[in-house]
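Renewal narrative, Specific Aim 1. Our central claim is that a sequence can be written position by position from structural information alone. The example that follows is taken directly from our test logs and has not been curated for this report. It begins with the structure tokens describing the chain, in the order in which they were read.
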């Protein structure tokens, strides 16, 4: 397989407008055919449907290779384009079978798993190996040095979004349009008021006079407030929790409003676009966004989102254990939080460690039990899984480094002893 390129946007919108999925295959060329004959056509078979190209339009001068008509440059756009329409939920898990029909010789075929090879909405350039399905898998000794025939194709798989994703996109577009309309209408009015108010009401300028004394008093009272909070922390803790929840709510609302504005979208678009693209390239992302059949499980989604490297995974594990123990901030009341957090922690632990051989598959159950039971949240089950996964590797590397250092020290010591003995012999 070679690289991929984005499909034509106009073609993408045209194809995505149909309710069913669609597989578009453009046959480019066949290379190094085993027989010195011209293929009559190439056919594509998916889900029992077969479509066929016309004959090739040109032959390579020195090789038994053939080029098919380029639909974008040909007067007949479908000369090399094969299209199969079916529900995306059936197309996505299917296998595409390409057959190169040889005149007077056995046909040769190539297969391609769509779910493992393609990303919905991205055009892929593929090089598929052709073989005779009637011949044994292992080639004879005379055939081992022969060149494998190949088929060059461009594949594009498109289809509809899931209903909830369509609803989310429509709601987001309506919301952004509303926010942009309000911002455009109210921005000029607010700017006019802020510009003309000090000129029409001179007394407004004098409202700035008490600002400096109030700021000075506030700065002076900050240490007093911090000291009172430290001394009366047990009494102020519920109030602080309420204030923190209020601040977080206001911050979330303000952040949402800012992101909804045109300026906020422009600033966050590069970061969100790259994150969305990375997620959409995963199998779980494809199954979540597009109507490919059953939705991905929470564990599969977590596996697509969670990091896998050593340090990032350690940070996530520490954060999971911290959130699990946060219920101790409000003794008694905080235990009710564990009822909601325990299933989430179960999914995260399963996603991070179920595939790790060194970690017991029962760790997710232990983590769920210690989180759901009262007064057991202090057990760092997530960090324990990280230690089981990476601990032996870290210890092994440290041991090797210590051994290497010991070898170096021993070599330097032997060299020093040899130098001392040589000096003694020379002095004698």
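The sequence written for that structure reads:
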């Amino acid at each position: 397989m070679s690289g991929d390129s984005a499909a034509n946007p106009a073609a993408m919108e045209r194809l995505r407008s149909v309710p069913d999925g669609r597989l578009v295959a453009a046959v480019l060329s066949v290379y190094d055919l085993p027989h010195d004959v011209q293929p009559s056509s190439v056919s594509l078979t998916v889900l029992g449907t077969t479509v066929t190209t016309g004959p090739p339009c040109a032959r390579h001068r020195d090789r038994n290779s053939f080029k098919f008509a380029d639909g974008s440059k040909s007067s007949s756009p479908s000369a090399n384009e094969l299209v199969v329409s079916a529900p995306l939920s059936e197309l996505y898990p299917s296998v595409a079978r390409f057959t190169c029909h040889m005149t007077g010789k056995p046909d040769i075929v190539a297969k391609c798993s769509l779910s493992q090879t393609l990303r919905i909405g991205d055009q892929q350039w593929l090089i598929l190996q052709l073989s005779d399905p009637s011949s044994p898998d292992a080639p004879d000794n005379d055939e081992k040095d022969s060149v494998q025939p190949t088929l060059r194709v461009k594949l594009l798989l498109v289809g509809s979004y899931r209903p909830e994703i369509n609803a989310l996109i429509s709601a987001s577009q309506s919301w952004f349009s509303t926010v942009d309309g309000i911002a455009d209408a109210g921005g000029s009015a607010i700017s006019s008021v802020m510009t003309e108010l000090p000129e029409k009401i001179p007394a407004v300028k004098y409202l700035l006079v008490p600002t400096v004394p109030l700021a000075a008093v506030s700065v002076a009272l900050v240490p007093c407030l911090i000291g009172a909070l430290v001394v009366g922390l047990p009494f102020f803790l519920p109030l602080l929790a309420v204030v923190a929840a209020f601040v977080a709510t206001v911050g979330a609302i303000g952040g949402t409003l800012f992101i909804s504005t045109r300026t906020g979208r422009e600033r966050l678009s590069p970061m969100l676009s790259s994150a969305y693209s990375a997620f959409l390239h995963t199998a779980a992302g494809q199954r979540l966004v597009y109507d490919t059949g059953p939705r991905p499980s929470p564990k599969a989604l977590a596996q697509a989102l969670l990091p896998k490297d050593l340090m990032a995974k350690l940070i996530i594990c520490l954060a999971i254990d911290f959130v699990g123990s946060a219920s101790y901030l409000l003794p008694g009341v905080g235990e009710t939080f564990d009822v909601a957090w325990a299933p989430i922690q179960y999914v995260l632990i399963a996603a991070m460690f179920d595939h790790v051989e060194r970690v017991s598959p029962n760790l997710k159950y232990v983590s769920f039990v210690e989180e759901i039971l009262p007064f057991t949240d202090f057990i760092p089950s997530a960090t324990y899984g990280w230690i089981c996964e990476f601990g032996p590797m870290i210890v092994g590397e440290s041991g090797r480094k210590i051994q290497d250092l010991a070898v170096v020290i021993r070599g330097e010591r032997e060299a020093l002893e040899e130098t001392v003995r040589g000096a003694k012999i020379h002095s004698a």
